[in-house]
Amino acid sequence: MKQYSFLVLLICLFTAGSAQNNTPISITIDAAATGEPMKPVWAFFGYDEPNYTYMRDGKKLLSEIASFSKIPVYVRTHNLLTSGNGEAALKWGSTNAYTEDSLGRPVYNWHIADSIFDAYISRGMKPIAEIGFMPEALSTHPHPYRHHWKPGVAYDSVYTGWAYPPTDYAKWGNLVYEWVKHCVQRYGETEVNSWYWEVWNEPNIGYWKGTPTEYYKLYDYAADAVKRACPGTRIGGPTSTGPGWDKAESFLQNFLTHCASETNAATGKTGAPLDYISFHAKGSPKFLNGHVRMNMATQLKDIIKGCNVVRNSPFKNLPVIIGECDPEGCAACGMATNPENAYRNGTMYSSYTAASFSRIYDIAKSTGVTIEGAVSWSFEFENQPWFYGFRDLATNGVDKPVLNVFRMYAMMKGNRLNIANTSAVPFDSIVNNSVRGTQRDLGAFAAGDSKTTSVMIWNYHDDDLPAPSQSLTLNFQHLPAKKITALLYKIDSARSNAYEVWKKMGSPQQVNDAQYKQLEAAGQLYNETMVKKQKITNGSYNMKILLPAQGVYLVRVLYEE
């Protein structure tokens, strides 16, 4: 009887899901119903290991990102002041910017830090210059200093001597002053004024081994130094994590109170400089019954909580940067040790990113907070196994499907457009429950300017399980053109997907030149021309699309003369 009941349940669930997916869905995009400008919140990336920046695959990936973005991309990395020989390792890096001589006098060396920033500036990118971590010569608890963490080892083992407060806050302030002054001399004041500077990373967890009050002091000295060296540049913080779970005492809220009204440890005055606010937001995937289940709700709740804290503070009009905005917390934890991270190689990462980033715009609008950027903490891991399951944009110089979502976002210009989409999962439902059961997020996000209308569509579900494709009709209305060209870009199991090609090769860890070229080509964004210079009537154009599960498509309608 139990087996029979279970079989009936399976049939009912499959029938319900199939009926939903096979019912044609209509999405209407009104090119005349323009909303707020589409800020390029996607154009922010980051990673732990700064020395990857100027290595072979790191330089290649930076060049690719810079090439598809028409606006400057901001890049954030840890360990810019960490002591060491510049050797890269998982969750580790160093620049050796600060040492001391035998008499305890500061010795500054900007060579490695310059190599990192040079790689950005030469490509038209800009740093989010993270002021951290603590040099060994200044740490109150210097030994052990360097960690040797590996996937599968307890995460807390990374919090070694670099995470401690300084022995001398004045020396800390002078270090920051000399660094910023050097950057002004090397790159020019106008360039440095276009950067963001921030103090530390996630000081409300193990990344900071001091008290909150000691962090405020660290911030005060650093912010004062930045403004003395380059008054026009932007300083921010606290880059704390987990607004959604930080309920008992909000680190973010207390930091804002300090900047507004408490005594500045460096100057003795009231308050501290603050030009923007940053916090982090993470999702929470799990591995259940042999498959990955994502959870977008926790990430969105983090963003909402953080924005509400800002909205209710004296700094409600300052811009916000979500300093790390990801499906979960450990980029360097591969799927071998963390099976819940198996989503990272294929299209589930792509559809999650498309769906979650689109909701950031909704949160900004509903809270009234200016979200300037959302840093995808995903770059690349040099000299690591192919498709190991790191949270990265490329593996061994070959792009993963998720990078193509950012290529799509980069092509969306102008203002947001009104969409009528009854199939979309309501925002409140996603925030409370994510996307579960027979429900699928058949979402859409549109933007347009005087030359084009673009709509991104996705077929997302939390569970990484097989599901039917979905029939969609896109109805474009009030297009200001008599002729159009329509281009379709696809990310699915067959296109823009080097991972599936690699698996068909037999998942080789030794790739020959011919295979590499094939993988490299497969990683690029696939596109096809649907119609070319087609006449339309009354500004209307309809397009039918079959959208696979976890697929992300972009339609660009170009206006012809």
TrEMBL record:
Q: Where is the signal peptide?
A: 1-21
SUPFAM superfamilies for this protein: (Trans)glycosidases, Glycosyl hydrolase domain
Superkingdom as given in the UniProt entry: Bacteria
Q: Which InterPro entries match?
A: GH, GH39_cat, Glyco_hydro_39, Glycosyl_Hydrolase_39
UniProt-listed Pfam families:
Glyco_hydro_39
Q: Where is the Glycosyl hydrolases family 39 N-terminal catalytic domain?
A: 27-528
Annotated keywords: Glycosidase, Hydrolase, Signal
Keyword Hydrolase found: yes
Gene3D superfamilies from the entry?
Glycosidases, Glycosyl hydrolase domain, family 39
Family per similarity comment: Belongs to the glycosyl hydrolase 39 family.
Question: What name is this protein filed under?
Answer: Beta-xylosidase
